[in-house]
Amino acid sequence: MFVPLERLLNLEEGYRQRFLIKGLPIVLMVIEGKHILFEDRCPHQGASLFQGALTSDSIRCPRHGFEFDVHTGKAVNANCPELKLLNPAYERDRIGIDL
Question: Tens digits of per-residue pLDDT, 60-86?
Fold first, then answer.
């Protein structure tokens, strides 16, 4: 089942928004023209990553400073489980996720 999140015309560089879908917090970002979706929970202790510092390749957890590659989910500076990335789905003029 497709769950729409945003209209494609609103997805400009730097876009960042948090959504709650069936109890799952997710973040949608646009980084270097790519649509990035991930679960808004640091794999270390579950802190929100929404306000984390962002580079073109990684996001830093504001609670403990752990960094995760936004393209692969792998931890950059810690021995930690991977960030759960989600696959974006597209339907007409919208981006969303398939549940």
Answer: 999 999 999 999 999 998 889 999 999
Range of the structural domain that residue 77 is part of: 1-96
- The secondary structure of 15-70, three-state, reads CEEEEEECCEEEEEEEECCEEEEEECCCCCCCCCCCCCEECCCEEECCCCCCEEEC
Question: What global pTM score does this model have?
Answer: 0.92
Amino acid at 90: Y
Question: In the block, which residue shows the tokens 């980084």?
Answer: 31
Sign, Cα dihedral of 36, 37, 42, 47:
positive
In the chain, the number of structural domains is: 1
